[in-house]
Design brief:
single chain; 512 residues; alpha/beta; five-stranded parallel beta sheet; 17 helices; globular
Length: 512
């Protein structure tokens, strides 16, 4: 009798722990052939504007993640077949080699957006022609699709409605314990392939920046170490809500998003660890906030599932038609961090040099691009897709829909005041001076408005005038006192208490 062989195509689930696809393959088959394809389409250009689809920062992180996955599979009596080809072509070739001696199954994680779904459809068509059974598994979210209390077509159009429903009516499924020894890799004559270099994929090498707020490598091993550190070693999670809007350093936020984006880290595992921490040490708003943000991640995925390609349209998921500009000169000034608005420029330069930007920074630079400059939000979304280490298609495009006022946002016409935000979250200008060194001579919070410097404050600097000055900025210009402190700030870091204004009116803020 032919042995049952599962070809498990890894995609955005690059881990062994709490992996439903790997568990199914182990329990239901005699042999497992884990496969990862460096799909050339992922290293071409973005859909509309031709940026590198996967930039150097994210490519490096992905390569590290796949390398670590192979190591972890080898430690469990398995291996990883690595190919630099489309999954469709690789699967067809494998079927030719394996189908005569095995009962074949193709296993992969379900995705929700167009490019990934197109691949899934093509694979299913190939499998149907070859009489191979396909087993797809929902594996990427905290709350399982089968457990949410509404049909996908009825996913609430506000995050608060979604969160309250799933928290009150759903259980997060338990993590699955993976065996120390997996079912064996098939004994067939196949070249297992090697981990390519960035240059092999047509991408330039990326050298880590010494001041990066994300200094870690990709991979499940690094991800699990980070979770252990942030919770159990440092207790940083117990103060997360107070620090999460920080800008400088390793520990102001969890930084889990990069590993979550490629599936090196299971959201259910993070949830289970937070719950253990709450039982053994402390349960407060900060520990809950990690879960709160995991639910945000779920929400964007379910919104993408509900609205499909609308998330990528200029009019967004709500179909609002706005006359967007595609002024590439202005966009390039934004992209390169040369707008003349220090808080914007510092964040954009950090992104370009490190592949990372804080949550606070992302909200502000997005608002500036679409609200202050009126530039097509898709330019910003595609640039983030290219540059961010932690790019997640649902979260990225969902957030840009929000920023552009075309998403399911309970607050219409939301717009950030760049000067107020800078003074709230970088009151002494340390972050600005870190990434915009030409502003180093400007002391304290005055660095956020260098074009206003006169008299004794005047410094001759090589820095552009702001490309736009929004009228509401004038209300902030007198709020830096002679010592440089923001007058309404009671203590340094006060702004960190205010992190929800992007998404909520105050009455909708959750309470622990």
């Amino acid at each position: 009798m032919a042995k049952r062989l599962a070809i498990y195509l890894f995609r955005n689930d690059l881990r062994v722990h709490d992996n439903y696809c790997l568990q199914w393959s182990h329990l239901n088959c005699d042999l497992i052939l884990p496969l990862y394809c460096f799909d050339p389409r992922h290293f071409q250009e973005t859909w509309h504007f031709g940026f590198p689809k996967t930039g150097p920062q994210r490519t490096k992180f992905l390569l590290e993640s796949v390398c670590d996955l192979r190591s972890n599979l080898l430690a469990r009596n398995s291996n990883l077949l690595i190919q630099k080809e489309t999954p469709e072509n690789v699967i067809q070739d494998l079927f030719k080699i394996l189908k005569n001696d095995h009962k074949l199954f193709l296993v992969f994680q379900e995705e929700v957006t167009k490019e990934e779904i197109d691949v899934e459809r093509a694979l299913k068509k190939i499998c149907k022609a070859e009489n191979v059974e396909v087993h797809t598994i929902w594996n990427a979210t905290l709350y399982n699709k089968e457990d949410i209390p509404f049909k996908v077509s009825h996913v609430p159009d506000t995050y608060t409605g979604f969160r309250k429903s799933v928290e009150s009516q759903c259980e997060v499924r338990s993590t699955v314990k993976m065996p120390d020894t997996l079912k064996p890799f098939p004994n067939v004559n196949i070249d297992l392939g090697h981990i390519p270099s960035s240059k092999d994929l047509g991408i330039s090498d990326f050298l880590p920046h010494p001041k990066s707020a994300f200094p870690w490598k990709g991979g499940e091993t690094s991800a699990l170490k980070r979770v252990n550190y942030f919770l159990w070693e440092s207790d940083k999670v117990a103060k997360y809500k107070e620090t999460r809007n920080g800008l400088i350093g390793d520990d102001y936020s969890t930084k889990f998003s990069a590993w979550l984006s490629v599936g090196c880290l299971s959201p259910r595992f993070v949830y289970s660890e937070v719950k253990k921490y709450e039982q053994k040490r402390v349960s407060n708003q900060s520990t809950y906030w990690v879960i709160f943000e995991l639910i945000w991640r779920d929400y964007f995925r379910y919104v993408a599932l509900k609205y499909g390609d609308k998330m990528f349209y200029p009019s967004g998921i709500m179909g609002k038609h706005i006359e967007w500009k595609q002024d590439m000169k202005k966009f390039d000034l934004w992209k390169d961090g040369k707008t003349g608005v220090p808080f914007v420029d510092a964040n954009m330069r950090e992104l370009a040099l490190t592949g990372w930007m804080s949550n606070r920074g992302r909200q502000n630079v997005a608002s500036f691009l679409v609200k202050d400059l009126g530039i097509d939000w898709r330019l910003g979304a595609e640039w983030f897709e290219s540059q961010l280490i932690d790019h997640d298609v649902c979260s990225n495009y969902g957030n840009w829909n929000y920023a552009a006022g075309i998403g399911n946002d309970p607050r219409e016409n939301r717009k950030f005041n760049m000067i107020k935000q800078g003074l709230d979250y970088d009151p002494e200008g340390e972050f600005v001076r870190l990434w915009v060194p030409e502003l180093a001579p400007v002391k304290n919070g005055k660095v956020h408005t260098p074009w206003t410097l006169t008299g004794n404050d005047f410094v001759d600097i090589d820095y552009p005038k702001p490309m736009v000055i929004a009228p509401e900025w004038s209300r902030q210009l007198g709020r830096v006192n002679p010592s440089g402190f923001y007058k309404n700030q009671q203590k340094k870091g006060m702004g960190n208490q205010r992190g929800l204004d992007f998404y909520f009116s105050n009455k909708n803020q959750p309470k622990k």
